Amino acid sequence: MISNEFDLNLVPLNQVERIEILKGAQSTLYGSDAIGGVINIITKSKDKPLVSGALSYGSYGTKQGNVQFNSSINKLNYTIGFENQNADGFSSAKDITSKGNFDKDGYQNNSFFVKAKYQIDTLWNLQLSTRKTAYNAAIDYGGFKDDKDNEFKNATTMSGLILKYKKAKTNFQLQYQYTTQDRTYYNDSVDRTYTIFENNQYAGTTHFADAFLSTPIHKNIQWIIGTDFRYGSYNQTYE
Fold first, then answer.
1. Whole-angstrom Cα distance, residue 83 to residue 94?
2. DSSP string, 185-219
3. CA torsion, points 24, 36, 156, 108, in degrees to nearest 10?
4. Using an 8 Å Cβ cutoff, are 114 and 127 in contact?
5. Per-residue confidence in pLDDT tens, the chain, 239 aa
6. CA-to-CA distance for 162 and 173, rounded, in angstroms?
7. What is the Cα Rg of the chain in Å?
8. Which end of the chain, N or C, is surrounded by fewer C-beta atoms within 10 Å?
């Protein structure tokens, strides 16, 4: 991803089952970025066929709807889901003039995902997931300056493949993840005097792969070995 940071807007809250916070160094299991700890967001997983959906309405004109389908075919379990969220919002800039004419900065998010797990046998399983998220929001020009037509758009695709092995206390995992992200900052506000048009585009691609093996060599000693590889590319254009 761009700047190698994870955007929490990509995780629909209705899909979160629990959040684990692991303190201390976790690099052996979670990669080189997990030096001080890990926040592990675990999404929901259903084994039985189920169709579910929800609609909600909140303050600032917030509207949210989602639908999800879970099913299984022999050794294959899969989940397909879609979520839409939008809000009228409020001005992200503080109106220090007290004129009350700052416009609202709205937000819209669409997310589609597919998650599947295939149980190869009693020891091996293969997991596949992909998520496409597109959201856009109106933004202001700084903390105290209103901007009528300043927009931010983001489109992200995350796809991953995990092969797992588990026998007694021995665990092996091989993982690959591919991520693309496109961001656009577009501003054609006619009430500005400092510039007429602004169109900034950012695009990033990330490849990540890791493997680790853990197995006991004594009743009080666990042997762990792992490696990871990551490659990212990034480009940007300004108009």
1. 31
2. EEE--TT-SS-S-EEEEEEEEEEEEEEEEEEEEET
3. 90
4. no
5. 555 556 666 666 767 778 888 877 665 566 556 677 778 787 776 666 688 888 999 898 889 999 999 999 999 999 999 999 998 877 766 767 777 667 777 788 999 999 999 999 999 999 999 999 998 887 766 665 666 667 788 999 999 999 999 999 899 999 999 999 998 887 766 555 555 567 788 999 999 999 989 999 888 888 888 888 999 998 988 77
6. 7
7. 22
8. C
Token pair of 184, please? 């656009």
The one-letter amino acid code at 79 reads: T
Tell me the one-letter amino acid at 200: N
Q: How many residues does the chain have?
A: 239
Distance CA 86, CA 55 (A): 12
Return the residue matching tokens 């998650």.
115
State the residue for tokens 């967001």: 41
Rounded-to-10 torsion of CA 44, 2, 9, 59: 180
Q: Record the tokens describing residue 14, joined without a space.
A: 């209705």
All domains of the chain in start order, with CATH: 48-238 (2.40.170.20)
